[in-house]
Specification:
Elements: E1 2-5, H1 8-21, H2 28-36, E2 46-50, E3 56-58, E4 62-63, E5 65-69, E6 73-80, E7 86-90, E8 99-100, E9 106-108, E10 115-118, E11 124-133, H3 142-145, E12 151-152, H4 155-166, E13 173-183, H5 186-194, E14 198-204, H6 219-232, E15 238-243, H7 249-263, E16 269-275, E17 278-282, E18 292-296, H8 306-309, E19 311-312, H9 313-321, E20 327-333, H10 361-369, E21 375-379, H11 397-408, E22 413-414, H12 415-433, E23 442-445, E24 452-454
Helix pairs in contact: 2-4, 6-11, 11-12
Length: 455
């Protein structure tokens, strides 16, 4: 992207500055800011977005950027160009005060900034990254950042930012980045818009590395059978499964946070399916109404260190931010149960009272408030209920009935239609096969989301 001023003299100065500095900037700052300056443990969410929902721009078009933070703080906006160079766009010469209020949208450039951001060659994938800190960054000199409309970030700057972020309490800063695509012609953008992808990420864990974690019998089969149905009947372009020892914390994060975003673009459909243990721990951020952080249990979880080795709903919510702009459904066949009978999922056989398991409920409400609205969770049971395995011992109850609905549906099966059928089929089956139990599926998040299990 090139940076143009409205006044001719300023334009010449800006372009001259770009040309003279091009040879001095290498790819290292981009790699550091993308791969190393990240934070899954923040106590608040940040979101950055642009003025085109498809995030695709043709050379010559202008771009407007919006950033918003759940908490007040100090905003730094970085633009990672297709040619691997990095500039800081905010704060700048016009917008010098980078202290922002909570839940207040900041637009860059501002209406009275006197400059525009216009797309130029080389084209390719470019990244916007917003960082919000509770205290101003000491590694960046505000006086330098506010001397011009943009400031190049070199290798030393990027390393200093990373060191400062690493040494800062994780709750005290947050980040978010989105990729945009720049192309040479409008026809290239049209072709890109017409290419719609549907992918599924399936995770099923029956066996666990830690022998203290109770084994489950059919969760890997849930994943396998769901994958077969989606491939044969659902018209999904890609179905990727992680089962048992494949489903480590690192592999799951890599699949959801890196591979799935790389395989898709805004407007595409992404299904994330989980069958396995769920649990909860005490909430340390104060963002959970029930005082508990819900979590999912990967293959290599350690029962004595759930916070670091399991996937909390806070962390999972940040992973989903990497898929911002896609239509996302999280299909959750897990619960935190009060018992560990043969047909129940959960980690705590000693507890006689079932504790709530409302994974992502609060997180979706929070990300919706800052603009990320295209996501929903279809969960197998209410927070206070147990998710059951079928009496026949073949599949989990919700997984079985959803697969059957995908197979039998004569046409399109929307998220809403699937939920309607499950809300009838599951309680009736459980009432008949498990007297005294109830299991009621729930749909949270964007209940009107445009998503199809079958096209």
């Amino acid at each position: 992207m090139n940076y143009y001023q409205n006044k001719i003299n300023s334009t010449l100065f800006a372009l001259g500055a770009l040309l003279s500095l091009v040879s001095l900037v290498d790819a290292a700052p981009r790699a550091i800011l993308v791969e190393e300056v990240k934070n899954d443990q923040s106590s608040f969410y940040v979101r950055v977005d642009v003025d085109r929902s498809d995030r695709t721009y043709v050379v010559g078009e202008t771009v407007k950027i919006n950033a918003i933070s759940e908490k007040a703080g100090y905003l730094y906006l970085f633009y990672l160009q297709a040619d691997k160079k990095v500039v800081c766009l905010f704060p700048n010469k016009v917008q010098q005060n980078n202290k922002i209020a909570a839940n207040s949208k900041i637009t860059i450039p501002s209406q009275n900034s006197g400059f525009r951001l216009r797309v130029g060659e080389p084209v390719g994938t470019e990244i916007l990254k917003a960082v919000v800190t509770q205290q101003p960054l000491k590694s960046l000199d505000l006086d330098i950042l506010t001397k011009s409309n943009f400031t190049f970030i070199d290798d030393n700057d990027a390393k200093a930012i990373n060191v400062e972020a690493t040494n800062t309490e994780s709750r005290e800063w947050a980040e978010h980045m989105v990729a945009i695509k720049t192309v040479k012609t409008a026809s290239e953008r049209k072709t890109r818009q017409q290419t719609h992808r549907r992918i599924a990420v399936l995770i099923g864990i029956s066996d666990y590395k830690d022998p203290r974690i109770p084994e489950l019998r059919i969760c890997h089969l849930d994943s396998e059978k769901m994958g077969e149905a989606l491939k044969k009947y659902g018209d999904f372009d890609e179905v990727i499964s992680l089962v048992n020892e494949q489903a480590t914390l690192k592999n799951i994060e890599n699949l959801i946070r890196i591979k799935a975003p790389e395989m898709t673009k805004p407007g595409d459909e992404v299904l994330i399916f989980w069958s396995g243990h769920g649990d909860s721990i005490a909430d340390t951020d104060g963002d959970e109404k029930d005082g508990r952080d819900e979590l999912l249990v990967p293959y290599d979880a350690k029962i004595e260190d759930k916070k670091q080795t399991c996937i909390t709903d806070d962390v999972f919510g940040r992973w989903l931010q990497a898929l911002d702009g896609r239509n996302i459904v999280v299909l959750l066949d897990a619960c935190k149960s009060g018992g560990q009978a043969n047909n129940e999922k959960g980690l705590n056989p000693s507890k006689s009272v079932i504790e709530g398991f409302d994974f992502l409920d609060g997180e979706f409400a929070r990300t919706k408030d800052i603009g990320q609205k295209q996501a929903a969770v279809l969960a197998s049971s209410r927070a206070s209920q147990i998710s059951l395995v079928r009496r026949e011992g073949d599949l989990s109850v919700m997984t079985y009935f959803l697969i059957e609905r995908i197979k039998s549906s004569s046409g399109k099966l929307t998220l809403q239609d699937a939920y309607k059928h499950l809300a009838n089929d599951i309680p009736n089956y459980v009432k008949d096969k498990f007297p005294g139990h109830t299991q009621t599926p729930v749909l949270i998040g964007n209940e009107e989301l445009d998503f199809n299990f079958k096209k």
